[in-house]
Amino acid sequence: MDETTRQATRQWTLAQPAVSAFIASVVRDFRDRDDVLQNVAVAVVESYHSYDSSSPFIPWAIGIARRQVGLYLRRRGRDPLVFDDDAVACLAIAFHEEAQERSHALDFLQDCLGSLDGRAKTLIGLRYRDDMKPAAIASQTDMTPNSVAKALQRLRDQLRGCIERKSMEASV
């Protein structure tokens, strides 16, 4: 596999959930959704050479998905419940905006995680990086499973609040 294909695959892996959600919002039949998603994946890899790496990848991939959905809808034109091109365009814009918001939230999460102290960072790391349950974390931290669960809940609340504050600050 050459480096361009490798890069396209990496980018697609990150974009696929947003693109899949966009397709699912328009294409009702799950088998057709899978076919359209597969066509989009092929088109993304085949068109990757035209992608401008200075712009966000997800909106570019959603643009390709929009064209593939348009082709699908034209083939299914006899179906009375098919969206028109304007509705699909509106959905593409909405998914692009949502993807940007989620991207910002992930950036804010990274900042908020960086501000945690030692024990909090350890608990979050054991739970989400190492995928340990509270009982297993308790055995490693001299805490009870119940106190681990409560501490994790407080940390999630703290992180949510931090993300919301940073989001409000960014929008001002």
TrEMBL record:
Transcription regulation in keyword set: yes
InterPro entries in the cross-refs: RNA_pol_sigma-70-like, RNA_pol_sigma-70_dom, RNA_pol_sigma70_ECF_RHOBA, RNA_pol_sigma70_r2, RNA_pol_sigma70_r4_t2, RNA_pol_sigma_r2, RNA_pol_sigma_r3/r4-like, WH-like_DNA-bd_sf
Domain RNA polymerase sigma factor 70 region 4 type: 109-159
Gene Ontology molecular function: DNA binding; sigma factor activity
One of the GO biological process terms: DNA-templated transcription initiation
Superkingdom of this protein's organism: Bacteria
Keyword Transcription appears in the UniProt entry: yes
Domain RNA polymerase sigma-70 region: 16-78
Alphabetically ordered keywords of this record: Sigma factor, Transcription, Transcription regulation
Family membership noted in the UniProt record: Belongs to the sigma-70 factor family. ECF subfamily.
Protein name: RNA polymerase sigma factor
